[in-house]
Fold each of these.
Amino acid sequence: VQLVESGGGLVQPGGSLRLSCVASGFTLGSHWMHWVRLVPGKGLAWVARIKTDGTTSLYADSVKGRFTISRDNANNTLFLRMNSLRVDDSALYFCAREHVVENWIDSWGQGTLVTVSS
Amino acid sequence: SYEVTQPPSVSVSPGQTATITCSGDKLGDKYVSWHQHKSGQRPVAVMYQDAKRPSGISERFSGSNSGNTATLTISGTRAMDEADYYCQAWDRSTVVFGGGTKLTVL
């Protein structure tokens, strides 16, 4: 199982980024998937969750209306579109896999760093 | 929204037992997982559904959850166990993390 995030970088407040997470070693379409972020000194914070077929998405209140989680199962890729970025969105963003049968997060990527600054 | 609370830090001597708690309203009615994170590495799940160990996780790790408190216990603590530990609960269909506990092995 491997999850590899990319797409992070430096962006100005109000800007946009799209993060990607390429999955390998398993069938992405069989798993609910998550984005989680880590802010140094503040810990992990859940961002979003998406159903296996992409028909259901859930968001943390802090990102609702600004972030969109999506997936391309044919290409084994998970996405996070981030709009109207704020300074406090700066974090290391992880994608994470949910167990195929039981509801627990069983695998994580290495993360991609997003810095929002002027 | 639902919240879970952890102590910011726990210290333990090598070979001793470390206990990390996670508190939340009626937390015992929810499933809790624990994730270990070492700086620069990917997080690793060390416990799920309160007391189940994922494949490959040492038997030194155990968990419980009752009432308002979930507990991760590490017996025979080693230097390699030094890390940040996060409890994670489910709030309806969304996920909640605790603030994390830094485990120091002195």
Note: The CA atoms of residues 20 and 29 of chain A lie 15 Å apart.
Amino acid sequence: QVQLLQSESELKKPGASVKLSCKASGYIFNEFAVHWVRQAPGQGLEWMGWINTATGDPTSAPGFTGRFVYSLDTSVTTAYLQISSLKAEDTAMYYCAREDSYGADSFDLWGQGTMVTVSS
Amino acid sequence: QSVLTQPPSVSGAPGQRATLSCTGSNSNIGAGYEVHWYQQLPGTAPKLLIYGDNNRPSGVPDRFSGSKSGTSASLTITGLLAEDEADYYCHLFDSGLGAAVFGGGTKLTVL
């Protein structure tokens, strides 16, 4: 079954770090880039960046540099998003998404999302 | 403030047609970058509805269609159903900038 399975919800204190995972299955992992999208409570979708699963090269959107690190473990077909120095405003649902198989740069497969709550 | 502007809300009666707009500029939609549309039902992950301006992935009903003209794109839903009530987002990847952008989203209410 073609899917992206994300890790469970996280509750963290301000200043802590969190590493989210996104495990791909049912397709050839290194043929499709993985993107990360944030959705704050009650808000819209915000593109964070992406990682080239063939080379491991990450690209961050402005505003998602520094504290946000994108990585891979191709041996387990998993992409990761690590966020350090967590702030209350990082509280959001984080989605991973696959860049499409149509060559159109859309996101044709999404994970179910990981909710990160940052609270003291 | 997104570079792609969507009306916050649109409503329509069951069976009617709803048109959701996504307005960009000459540097994105007007430059020819393809627009994609997603449906996000409450409490769920977004789902690709339209890719490449006007193409439907397998399994998406033909009640959903996309179009583009100038610096704007539109998603049209015909024969509205209660289950269409959701948030809809437009999206494009600006390969010149190497960055993707989403519109702010439109909440569709089926009256």
Note: The first strand of chain B starts at residue 9 and ends at 12.
Amino acid sequence: ETGVTQSPTHLIKTRGQQVTLRCSSQSGHNTVSWYQQALGQGPQFIFQYYREEENGRGNFPPRFSGLQFPNYSSELNVNALELDDSALYLCASSLWGLNTDAFFGQGTRLTVV
Amino acid sequence: AQKITQTQPGMFVQEKEAVTLDCTYDTSDPSYGLFWYKQPSSGEMIFLIYQGSYDQQNATEGRYSLNFQKARKSANLVISASQLGDSAMYFCAMSSSGNTPLVFGKGTRLSVIA
């Protein structure tokens, strides 16, 4: 098991609501990346945080936002939820510049009804 | 833009046999890294093996080896002596540097049969 913990593990929300997902990074890691994995697909990059600032963003609308805290943990916020937001959300922590050292959490499975 | 293609949606292998999972990639970057991850039903992505584009030798990690053919832009994963616990989704991924995000393929579901 890695030291990356995501909460909650499962979540059901109604269309139009807002959701916050949380990720604690591996000890010693300073970078957190978030990915969305729709059913039957590979993960898609949402954004990355380093030193509490967003550093790179994939093709996701502004209603997907995030935060990184001084202890390197991170949050993913999604506003105005849509049915297509239903997916497994994965966070990965790493040291800046070392993708080979990335560890993933077990994910948060979000269902929007 | 980078792209990963995994053409095998599902594969079956007999326990104790070897299996090859295919991965082709496309990139214009001269320096890049190729990754393989295992995703059990629990959802966590488990890192298996890494190959750098300038590595001269194919990467190996225990029962996992990566058959890297740069000219063909392929990075196939070979699992030797398959075990029932190897049943999972397997994803090939790449990044152009240590800071850039991983680009994943659609994955291959491997089922190991007793």
Note: Chain A is about 0% helix and 55% strand.
